[in-house]
Amino acid sequence: MSDTEPVRYEERDDIAIITLNRPDKKNTLTDAVIQGVADGIDAAAASRDVAAIVVRGEGGTLTAGYDLTPASGDIEAGWSTPYGAKGPTPREGAWDPVRDYQFMGNNVRRFMKIWECPKPVIGQIEGWAIGGATDMILCADLLYMASDAHIGYAPSRIYGTPTTMMWVYRLGLEHAKQYLLTGRAINAEEAHRIGLVTQVCDPANIGAEVEAEARRFAHIPANQLALNKLLINQAFENMGLRTSQMLGTFFDGVTRHTEEAYRWVESFEAKGFREVVRERDDPWEDYGSAPQTD
């Protein structure tokens, strides 16, 4: 796969490395990026030479979430929707909940390939993992985080709910409410303290540490890994994970089509996307509105 592809895939030393490759756009998620990750997971699962998988981002950032910039913030601009049906031409501005659910559900199904993969997947969090980035990377089995990185679901403040809903299952009730009701950014130290990530690493060494851990899985029989992962995952599925994902995906569409959401998106044109996001985050003093330190 060439360096110009939105996602790079390589195999070496018993591992597969899937790299989001839009560094000029902070590796924001597009249909091509999500499909590239899903295809990479499928390729690694099928390869006899791969014991474990690493998911990372190019340029020092995992991903800043969904690319909301096309068509003044229309998340569906340039995206494929695996659904079609006869019906009247919708009136301007109308929301089709079934089409929206199928559209976002298609993303969830592709993210969940990470969860369902029979081989261990390690997520490498550098820079930022925001919004839709967490829907993807929290599906990984282990999370390694650079000490200067941040993770959070900023769309909790407006324009979204988590679709894979892994926050609740990885954190428990108290911390899930703490961070999903506020959308606060979580630094690496806090993420490790609350059990969200496996290990915090020096930013200069995180890639090497993640690869070293991934290679160790070559010393455990593949069937043993697959069955242990399936057993652990099944426990969480029995807690209602799939039902939570259905509601999270549907509610995500609802939150993007409230009157407040419409007005928020419309303000992009008048104020600019970055200014609108800054106003969203200023009261919380995080993400791009965090106080600058020397």
Label this structure with key terms:
single chain, 294 residues, alpha/beta, 2-enoyl-CoA Hydratase, Chain A, domain 1, six-stranded mixed beta sheet, three-stranded mixed beta sheet, 11 helices, 9 strands, globular
Strand order of the largest sheet: 1-2-3-4-6-9
What is the residue-mean pLDDT, rounded to a whole number?
Answer: 94
Order of helices and strands: EEHEHEEHEEHHEHEHHHHH
Please mark out the parts with pLDDT under 50 across 5 or more consecutive residues, or reply none: none
Largest beta-sheet details: 6 strands, mixed
Distance between the termini: 40 Å
Shape: globular
Number of helices: 11
Q: Please state the structural category.
A: alpha/beta
Oligomer status: single chain
CATH superfamily: 2-enoyl-CoA Hydratase, Chain A, domain 1
Strand content: 5-15%
The CATH architecture assignment turns out to be: Alpha-Beta Complex
Share of helix among residues?
Answer: 40-55%
Number of domains: 1
Q: Radius of gyration, rounded?
A: 19 Å
